[in-house]
Amino acid sequence: MRLLAIILTLLLLPALPAKAAPVNLATAATPSASYTSPWESVTAINDGVDPPRSNDTANARWGTWPQTGTQWAELTWPTAQTITSAEVYFFDDNGGVRVPASWKLQRWSGGSYIDIPGTYPTAVNAYNRVTFSQISTVRLRVVLQSGAASVGLLEVKAIGDNGNPSTPWNPPANLVTPLNEVWQHVESTYPNLYGFRNYGWDQIMANGGSINYCVRWDSSATVTAAQRDRIHATLARQFKKWMDVMAGQEGWPYTNVPVKVVGWAVRDRNQLQWTDNSVDIYVGDIRENAPQCVAACGRFFNQNGTYPNCPGGAARHYDMSLWLTAGMGGGAGGDWGQRLGSEYYMANLDADNMHILLHEIGHSFGVDDFYDWTPSGVCCFLMKAGSASSITDFDAWMFRDWWRHLKSRYGR
Ligand SMILES: [Zn+2]
C-alpha cells in the first residue's frame, strides 16, 4: 500500500496544473477620464475601495457633472495585461449623477479603441460584471452614455491573472526542519494566532492589493516636499522587497502592491514645507507622546475595515504608520506599522536595504524575533536581529509560511 501510494504520488505530481491566481489588476493602473468634476477624483475608480452603495458619500468618487453625452474613464498599465472580465460600480446620487443609459468596454489595440462584446448591465448598489474572451491590452476604457443626468463611477475592477502560476509549497530541503520549528514555535507562543485579523496580509487583502500609510513625524525637524517624496519612495522600495518574495507563491494574488502615503502627522504644521494637498495633514493629535493621523482613519482602531468617521473617507484610511522618532535607535514593528529613528531613516534614504525597516515590516506580517532561540541549521537572517542586513532565503520562506497558514481565510 505504502509503495503504491508513493508511486502514485510521483506519477501525479508533475501532472498537477499550475494554478494562476485571478486578481484585480486595476489597482496597478493609472486612471484617466474624459472629464472630472473639480470636487471628484478619477483616482477613485481604482483605489481598491469597495463602495457601500451607489450614492456613496464617504469615499472618493469619479463624476462628470455637469457634463453629459459620451464620457469615459480608463485604466492604463505600463505593460499589457491579460483580462477576462471586468466589474464596474456606478456612482448615482439620485440627482446630478445617475447610472448611464448604456455603457461598454473598449480595449486599446495600439492604434484605436476596439469595443469588447458582452452584456452590459446597469444596476445600482452593486458591481456590474462583464465577462468576455481573454484580451491583452495596456488600456481598458469604460465608455458611458449618459441618461437622466451626468455619469460617474465609484470603482472599476479588471480581473485577470497575474501571469505567475502559483507554485506549490517547496522550500529547499535544508530549510524544511527550521521552518517547521519556527511554525511550531509561533503556534505555541501565540494562541490567538489564527483569530487575529490585522496582519499586513489582512490589510492588503482588504484593500484589494495595496497598502496605505500615515507618516508619524515624531521630530522637530522640518521636511521639504522633496524629502516627503523620498521618504515615500524609500518606504515603497523596501516594502516591495517583501512583496517580491510573494509573487506567484502559494496563491498570493498580487505581483505589485502599491504603497500609498495618505497622511502625515506632525506637532506643528510649519514643519512641513509644502502647500499641496497630496496628503492629509494631521496637526497636534498626540498619542504615545507622538503625533498620529486621526484614529478614525486608522485600521488599527477600526479593524472591521470601515471608516465612517474618517474625514477623507475610506480611501484616505491608513493601514500602517511609519513612525519616525528623533533620537531613537533600533526599531519596533507590529500590525500598527513600523517605528524607527528619524535620523537613521533620513540617512538611509538611498540604501539598497534599510535593514531595520525591513525587519520591522517583517513583524507587521507576523514574523517573529529570534532573541532567545535559533532554528536548526540556520545562522543568519534578517529577522534574527544583527545577523543579516537583507531578506535572506530563510526570511523569505518564513514570510511565505505565514501566508500559507492564513490564506484559507481568503479562500485560497
Ligand atoms: Zn524585531
From TrEMBL:
Keywords: Signal. Residues 1-20 form the signal peptide. PANTHER family: CELLULOSE-BINDING FAMILY II PROTEIN. This is Cellulose-binding protein. It comes from Nonomuraea ferruginea. The lineage of its organism: Bacteria, Bacillati, Actinomycetota, Actinomycetes, Streptosporangiales.
